[in-house]
Structure formats: structure tokens, C-alpha cells
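Quick one: co-fold with pyridoxal-5'-phosphate.
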Amino acid sequence: MPLQTTQNIWHNGDLIPWEKAQIHVMSHVVHYGSSIFEGIRCYAQEGGNGIFRLREHMARFLDSAKIYRMPLPFTLDQLCAAVVDVVEANGVAPCYIRPVAFRGYGEIGVNPLKSPVEVYVANFPWGKYVPGNTGADVCVSSWSRLAPNTMPSLAKAGANYMNSQLIRMEAEINGYAEGIALDVNGYLSEGSGENLFLVRNGTLYTTPLANSVLNGITRASVLTIAKDFGIPVVEQALPRELLYIADEAFFTGTAAEVTHLRSVDRILVGDGTMGPITTALHDEFFGLVNGTKPDRYNWLTPVTVKTRETVSA
Ligand SMILES: Cc1ncc(COP(=O)(O)O)c(C=O)c1O
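Sure, here it is.
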């Protein structure tokens, strides 16, 4: 989907014009992948707009920076305020928000510590991410997810997405909407940009953080809702074949939201339709973010924008 531009981008504390947000080709990040980022959605509710779990996203941003010894000269409160500022200044909502920090122009060589840290926040309209309104047809990837002790999965680092790109390209070239990677031990991990859930015999299963997954904020939200609904929840290492015999399966993610899986490796999941537990979680999630259900968890940060963007699928 082509990027739709907005007017301003927040850079190190100031709003600058979109077209001025440029970096030098010799910046460290271009050569060595030294970036961390976030992906956040701002949803429209009746009479306003709200950013979904802003604080949790920016806390994860700080965690990613800490793992990579990248000092960010901003507090959590300042980073949250930066996101609100750029969304309000651009007047574009609903939208997708992209905070990014990286090692900029300084020294050449692998060691990043002498290259300056740059922080930007952009926002833009963005619609549906995983294709398939009637459920996604996905495959198990021939690529494994990052091995522990190689690239830390809990950091949302740009370089991790080279692995995600391999998974996603392979899936699309072979006619699938998305790929699910196994971890290096052959257990289920996650999609190229989504966490994975299964339902079998009324129990909700998801892969734990130790299986090389990102600590997804949508994943955590769905787990909270499921526990409130009294759905039994199990986080444990899951064998690949559980996908084929699951009653239901779905992805979660900021981009993917809650997307039900119709088939895996051309094997229908259940009868291929969105099952009752997925439907309950999906509807509750969308009820909360779209404001048709009260924000009982305080997950929305209100923003004031003048225009309402039409987000295309
Ligand atoms: C690899 C990966 N896993 C899982 C997720 C889902 O995380 P979240 O729900 O915080 O967007 C994402 C998206 O950010 C991702 O890129």
C-alpha cells in the first residue's frame, strides 16, 4: 500500500515538515540496521479519536532502546506527549503511528555507540494489513524465527524485520496472505508481524515469550479480555500440528488487529469460518477500540483532530 503523507513529523522534540525528515546515506542505521520502532493505531470513536494503549507501546519502545544500549533523551511521558502532538498537529485520524529511533550519522563501523540517536514520530492513514475479509489463508514458513541468543525478540528492532520480510515474501509469492514461523526448536512462534492464537476444545492457546515472539500489546489485550470472559488460557510451547487440528486460530497485532485464519497450509481451520471464541474476542476488541463498548481498561488516549480520515482497506 503506498504511503499517504501527512504534514508534520516529530523529530527530537520539534515538529518538522514531512519532506524534511531525511537522513544521510552514511547513517549507521542504513548499514547495520540499528533502529527500533513502534506501530500504534489511533481509532475513531463516536465524537472523538483515541490512541490504543499508547503508554504500553512507548514503554516497549524504551525497552527496545534499553536492550540495544540506545539512550533515548526522552521520558515515557515526553514520548507519549510527542505522539499526541504529531497526531493533533497533522489532524489525521484514524491513523497508524510510527515512532522510530536509530543510530544516525556519526561514525562508520559496527559499534553504534559513537553515532547519535535520532527519534522521530510519524503518523499516516493505514487500513487493513492481512488480506482476506473472510479469514486469512496462511502457511507455515520454511524460515525459522530468530533464535534466542542471536537477535532478541522482545526488542522491536528494525533488523528483526529482515527475518519477517523473508517470511512474508515467501508466503505471498506462494499465494498465501501470511506466513507463520516456527522457532529454532520447531515449535510455533508467530507470524511475520503478528502473534498467534489457537482454540481447541474451548481453551485458548498462545505461544509464550520464550518461543521467540514479540511481546505483543494486542496479544496482551486479548489475553486480558479472554481472562475476563472466563475463557481458559494456556501459554505454552505449541507443536506445529496443533494448527491443523485447532478448532479456531487467529492473529493479533496492531496492524493485523484480530484476524481469523481460515486455513493453514491449505488445511481448513475448523470449518474455515470465524469460530465462537475468536468472534467473542474479535467483537470485544473492536467494540473497545471503536468506542461501542465503554473503555473499561482505560486503553484509549484521547486526541483532538479536526478531520476524520477515511481509511481504505
Ligand atoms: C513480529 C511481530 N509480532 C507480533 C506483533 C504484534 O504486536 P502488537 O500487538 O504490539 O502490535 C508485531 C507487530 O508489532 C510484530 O511485528
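If it helps, The pocket of pyridoxal-5'-phosphate is lined by residues 39, 164, 190, 193-195, 214, 216-219, 252-254 (CB under 6 Å).
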